[in-house]
Queue: 3 jobs
Job 1
Amino acid sequence: MGEPARRLVGLEPNSQEGPVAVVKATGAEHLIHILKVARSRHVAVDVRTRLPLLFPDEIANCIVVDGRGLNRPPAIDISRRQVTVGAGVDIGHVDRAARQARLCLRGTPAWLGGASVGALLAGGEPGELGLGDGTLLRDLVSALVVSGSGRPMRLGGSDLLGLAPWLGEGLPNALPLLVGGEGRMAILCEVTLHLHSAPFVAWGQVRLPAGRDPLLSALSAARSVITARLVDSVLLDETDDGTLLVVRAATWRGADDRADVCGRTSAAFARHGIEIGSWQDEPKRVRLGLDDGPWPDRNDGALGPSVDLRVQWSDVSAVLDVIEALVAEADPDAPKPVAHRCWALGGEFLRLSVQLGDGRADQHPLIRGVAHIIDAGAVPIGVGSRLREAVRDRMTPSAKVLLTALGRAWDPDGVLSPATGLL
């Protein structure tokens, strides 16, 4: 409380405003007690997993819950191919634990940025690595949550009836409605995820010249190999100096099939004028979860604030046009926005992360013009308070009514859904 709390969230010690307290909850019992105190004191609760905050002024007069305390170790069920883990555990730690049982997560962040399981799921984050075969969200089976009214509940579990996790088939299943709510109706405490057989993989990369045409050629080649199920990950790190293309070929037929898959992938890219040289096999210790994976190098600027978007393949050109137009219309007296975009390509859509650079991120032309990006066919991932209003304005009336009703049912006192943070 007081000055230590302000320091934790990133405020100056002599700041006049700040959080009421910063609390590290370690389980559902702690969350229930915190919510009880918040309701009795009429104080909002804000759950975060990264401190200090990019916008610390947003949590003035709130109780900040540090989700990193929800760190139940991964429990692997080999027979059912599932893992149950605390929402505050690093996603990379979960994947390494699964690999020691010859299993893995299908979709994980490609770079070890310290993201937790709960932060990814609650923000609707699809993941980056393995996106060609599906998303992390599709593997969510069940979750232990605490509603805003302080009630613990376990949701999901449709796999017990032989159903896909996200398909209720007419059965009551509130879990898909909560995911993507950013903790505004309930707090994720523990989650259960499906696991998959660990593939035999090899990494290949090539640096492409900067420009729109090389990027579109890489996208076309990538879609062909993803459709043919030769690769599960295609990553593009785009800067002013050029674009780093990183491809992960994958096979489940054994190590002997890996060379054939790499050769067919190289041939597909060569037809688009892109020559992938040598391939690096994944070391056995990495595949068994004993070492971290050979993650691609990422530009240091990628560690700053970003706006993350989900883009359909058919909308790529329109989204690129709008992004370039917004940046071109930026205030000439303001610092020039950085030209750094990171792509992760999937079978159904692309994940685009645009780095915002230094300065006030909320004044960046992409944040101020997010409505135009949505109109072009992109949907923000983990919209956050700065983008939520633009997203809400474009919801259908029925969606607004449904979310408002759910918020009142799950959080009748508005502890998790203050007036400035409606879905």
Job 2
Amino acid sequence: MKFIRTHKKLSICLLIIAIFILLFGSTFARYIYNVINNYILESREFYFNSSILDINGKDYKINNWDGVNNYILTIDVNNKKNSLSSTKSDISYDITVSCPSIVECRLSKTEGIIYQDSGSDNYQITVIPKEEFHEGDEVDITTFATSTSPYVKELSATYTLGVETSKFTYDIEDAVNNKYIILNLTNTTTYYEVETSFSTYQAGDRLTIDEYNALTDSEKENCFSAKVTVSFPANTLYLDMTNTNYLHRIPNSEQTEMVDGHNYINEFSFKMNASSSEKIMFYKNNPKNDFTYPIVNTESIVTLTVETAD
């Protein structure tokens, strides 16, 4: 009785959890426990949160993996309840990941610190295929971020990563406070199409990679595996004009937009080789934005128009 009198709030919480266990089972009771525990931690001004992870787990289904190249998942954590409330100390946390044996899941780090001044941190999971994947195949990757100081709190999420039927996929790597984003492009088309007749080839003919590689540079100009047009808001993203794909863009394909009296690139087109991947870097006007796609955002800040070989 003395314990109950001196720990009224805790006793009430334990009683509620016990009732839920009896009425609804352990899964729902665990959910209630996490909610109550989070309430107690926040009453102590401790905030360990994420736009991706959750105290009761989150599920994501991603269907834009080609099943050939590595796939990178970026996860953020922060020390904020909202724009006005944050934890007044550094937060240390541990990171784990689990995945089936058909892939390797490589963490960028196994522990991290959210410094009070920065307010956020992030880590990456690189999913590496160890077997041959086909359209429709899926793998589940579960990750946990657990704060260890000043209080313990666990966040988690499960990604169902599926092999898409599309010949072309893309995603955006980003995080809060990043100065730039990375647009990852993958063309899984395994051949080329002739678009302008030359030598013994006619428009519409299909060439293997070996046949294409045997052509001269001028002959290759008549073929394509994927033609990509990238469009983006020039007042939000600034193209890194040293990107190889921009330097090798299709002639006269770039478009500009006037921002504060200056012209900035907001669109250009280029060709991608068969069975290849490329990266495009853009600097962000506001580092506090997070343009991660398709996980954090359901719509991409970058618009792609793609034509692949038939």
Job 3
Amino acid sequence: MPLKVDPKDRKLLMGAACVFVLLVAVAVLFGGESATKAEIPSSYSTASGGAKAAYLLLSQAGYKVERWESPLDQLPQAMGKTLILAGPQEAPTRDERERLKAFLSEGGRVIATGMFAGTFLPENESVPDVLGGMTWKKASALSPSAITRAAPEIVLAPQARWQSYSAAYPLYGDGEHTLVVKYPYGRGEVLWWAAATPLTNAGLKEPGNMEFFLACMGGAKGPILWDEYIHGYRPTLGSSIAHSPVKWLVLQLLLLALAVVATFSRRSGPICKPASEVRLSPLEFVHTLGGLYEHAGTASVAVDICYQRFRYWLTRRLGVASNISVSDLEVAVRDRWSFVDDHFVGILRRCESAKNDPYLHPPAALQLVQELDQYAVRLKLFQGVRKEKG
């Protein structure tokens, strides 16, 4: 049986498909080859901001370097190990910070770079500097050390700065701010860089950066752990997808699927006949009658009808003649029911005069009808009528 698609549904489906194809085309056109290269200092990335060249350099130089793709709270015993936190983009958890402190106390070394790297460290005096990271700057040695002897000057794009009053040992600065520091913690040592530029594929070629990078390793004999967990590389497939651009492709596919479901669900769902009002219902009669009075401009007729009904039940309950005057009617109500209201007789007189007024305004007529209804409630005129009908 061929599938029949409503023309409106077909237009909606074709529109969603066109938007999806357009998004894919734009991603391919403007992304190109660089779209597959992450601009983060990852040892997997070959982009200019990646760090695969530095990772291979350490491996070829004889260092025992390996990638770490688990949370920091699962770090192994230090035993001379060096941990590289190259440009983390997320703040650590409490457990990760506590394990990192223990790692340093056990004698481990930590090289932390970038704007948010200070949040991982046990002692942090770094201040973010977003504008400073837009340009590369030369940083000169501030204090004598094995590192500054190997590279008197380095080049980096500082994303942060270290407070000058800190007790950390300053290594490099640009004349205004301290950009590289080190300090001991327990039996370990912390090296903080203002940016990961010296170890990136593009920055490694700048004068002094390679020497600086290798000197920071300090002739490490133990393993060097390059943290890739902070870059989104996770041990499970789901975790890796959640921290990669693939999730946006999945989102587009979900939007397309929702468009398809919305297209056909209206036709395949159960058909429910909407409830219709009975044309003989009292409410429809009231609306129809009110519309006629409004169209004819005879507000006085509505007042006359309500007033005559009010007088009929009032005189019937009092047992008086239906043609009794307003004054005598007010006296009868006061004497028999002890009902005293100076405004009552005024309303009755206004209704007497309004029923013969062809120019009565609808708001004034509405007010008179409402006043009569309130007095009917107070005098309990229609209770018996409602009980009889019930």
